[in-house]
Amino acid sequence: MVLVVGGAGYIGSHILWLLREASAAHIVFDNLENGHRGALHGSPNFQGDLRNPADLDRCFAEHPEIDSVINFAAYIAVGESEREPAKYWKNNTAGMLNLLEAMQKAKVGRLVFSSTAAIYGEPLYVPLDEKHPKKPTSCYGDTKLAVETMLANFDRSVGIKSVCLRYFNAAGAHPSGEIGEDHNPEEHLVPLAVAAALGRRPSLKVFGTDWDTIDGTCVRDYVHVLDLASAHLLALKHLRGRGESRQYNLGNGVGFSVRQVLDTVGHVLGTPVPTEVAPRRAGDPAKLIASSEAIREAWGWTPNRPELEEIVRDAYNWHRLHPAGYGDRPCSNIG
Fold it and tell me: Cβ atoms within 10 A of the Cβ of 254, count?
């Protein structure tokens, strides 16, 4: 059985969908602080919090069949992490330590970790490969890099094997429109652009139009959320086959500018995205593009939905069918 920590969130819910399709035994561990019950679609949920070791111990005790863990549970807002570092270190890093200790006690030795391109910091070259220097420029990136160091320690000392998947820009939604992206507040470009085009939010701010890029706006690597999800299943297969710990980038390997994303959203929706130009944001790199050659060569992973229009179309389909998202307010942990 797979324990999916943070499975009621955006990427986690897409993993659950694939696990249900494969009839794979699983259970969700989520405090529903930022996740949604509506994203579970029947997957069993144990309501608990990583910051409470007793919750983890109880979950593993009640489900001794758990043999692997996927962890998505983290705060992800870069700006907030700079304003409230303690919140991020307690949840993202101390929470992971609690999870690893609980896994060690339960003799569960396999973990797939949701990492991030933020561990690299300002790019020295693009596309970024796994050998790029790791110098985060945010507290969020620091907490994720600290977890990767922690996982290497636990591998060496107690034998817990892990795969760290470093995401670039997750986007899109399940083509069925049944699950998708529902953050509050929302900070990701594609859903913000869709909402602006639909008149559900004010005009979208474009932070700088004088970057050294194809059209002066920042360039990012957008990867479909289902392509990310498929990589996690490959990681589980690798670990269950007694594979060694690994760290891989996950991206399309192709960059799209902010302007290209906005134009694509306008094309798909048939209405332009209202925008206003704003000053550059400190810490924003001009280009952030992934090299995913390592995971392609090792496991044959490749994005099946690489086209920006398909990513936007799936995102729009979700927002069209669910104008209020999942329709439930995030629930605080009741531990």
Answer: 16
Give the C-alpha separation, 41 to 157, whole Å.
38
Report how far apart the first and last C-alpha atoms of the chain are (Å, whole number). Answer: 22
Q: How far is CA 201 from the centre of its chain?
A: 24
Active-site residue identified among 75, 120, 140, 326: 140
Q: What does the alpha-carbon distance between residue 62 and residue 102 come to, in Å, rounded to a whole number?
A: 13
Phi, psi of 115 (to 5 degrees): -100, -160
> Residue 140: helix, strand or coil by DSSP?
helix
pTM across the whole model: 0.93
Q: Alpha carbon of 156 to those of 146, 164, 309: distances in Å? A: 16, 15, 44
Q: Alpha-carbon distance 80 to 73, whole Å?
A: 16
* C-alpha gyration radius of the chain: 19
pLDDT along the chain (335 residues), means of 10: 97 97 97 93 95 97 98 92 95 97 98 96 95 95 97 97 96 96 91 94 93 95 97 97 98 95 97 95 87 96 95 96 77 31
Question: Tokens at residue 147, please?
Answer: 């977890």
CB atoms within 10 A of CB 202: 10
The full set of domains in the chain, from first to last, is 2-168+224-250 (3.40.50.720)
Q: What gap in Å lies between CA 252 and CA 246, rounded to an integer? A: 19
Q: Residue 149 contacts by C-beta under 8 Å, 6 or more apart in sequence?
A: none
> Any catalytic annotation for residue 222?
no
Integer Cα distance of 154 and 260 in angstroms: 43
Assigned token pair, 196 = 């602006």
Half-sphere exposure of 105 (CA within 13 A, CB side): 14
Query: Amino acid identity, residue 76?
Result: I
